[in-house]
Amino acid sequence: MSEACQPVDVAVGVLIDAAGRFLLTSRPAGKVYAGYWEFPGGKLEAGESVEDALRRELQEELGITIGAVHPWKVEMYDYPHALVRLHFCKVYDWQGEFEMREAQRMAWQTLPVEVTPVLPGTVPVLRWFAEERGFEGPTHRG
Ligand SMILES: Nc1nc2c([nH]c(=O)n2[C@H]2C[C@H](O)[C@@H](COP(=O)(O)OP(=O)(O)OP(=O)(O)O)O2)c(=O)[nH]1
């Protein structure tokens, strides 16, 4: 029971390209919410900072080396499987070719997001983008 109350810290990368599009990736088979679209990232390992974890995860999952990490917002989300604390960071530069090392899919998106379904814990980010960009209307389908 006590484990369920302890939040799991997750580093999440919001990659933004020169055209203002952001990168979503689908969750691989075998994970909870497989097939749902999210921003790439993963859990912090013991002793890791958010930035360290993000660099490691994006290298492992996407094969890219990221440049500066800009912390954006922190959001808690209470799933049936876990309470997560999501550390969303903006990233504007990276090196290397994208490789989907976990057989995920990737999609550069703008508002409204076309891919579906979107992970519940990802939806707030789309609202923040909408506020920043003066976008009105639904941010995603479904
Ligand atoms: N990467 C990512 N995770 C998110 C987002 N929104 C959201 O609620 N989450 C949740 C889903 C999961 O419960 C958790 C991330 O854990 P994960 O299982 O993907 O992390 P991981 O890659 O370290 O996985 P593993 O090594 O334990 O298999 O955060 C998001 O936008 N991106």
From TrEMBL:
Q: Which organism is it from?
A: Caldimonas thermodepolymerans
Q: PANTHER family of this UniProt entry?
A: 8-OXO-DGTP DIPHOSPHATASE, NUDIX HYDROLASE FAMILY PROTEIN
Q: Which GO terms describe its biological process?
A: DNA repair; DNA replication
Please provide, alphabetically and separated by semicolons, the GO molecular function terms listed in this UniProt record.
8-oxo-7,8-dihydrodeoxyguanosine triphosphate pyrophosphatase activity; 8-oxo-7,8-dihydroguanosine triphosphate pyrophosphatase activity; 8-oxo-dGDP phosphatase activity; 8-oxo-GDP phosphatase activity; metal ion binding
Family of the protein in this entry:
Belongs to the Nudix hydrolase family.
Where does the record place the Nudix hydrolase domain? 7-131
UniProt protein name:
8-oxo-dGTP diphosphatase
User: Under which main EC class is this enzyme filed?
Assistant: hydrolase
Alphabetically ordered keywords of this record: DNA damage, DNA repair, DNA replication, Hydrolase, Magnesium, Metal-binding, Mutator protein
**Catalyses which reaction(s):** 8-oxo-GTP + H2O = 8-oxo-GMP + diphosphate + H(+); 8-oxo-dGTP + H2O = 8-oxo-dGMP + diphosphate + H(+)
Q: Name one Pfam family in it.
A: NUDIX
Q: What is its EC number?
A: 3.6.1.55
Cofactors (names): Mg(2+)
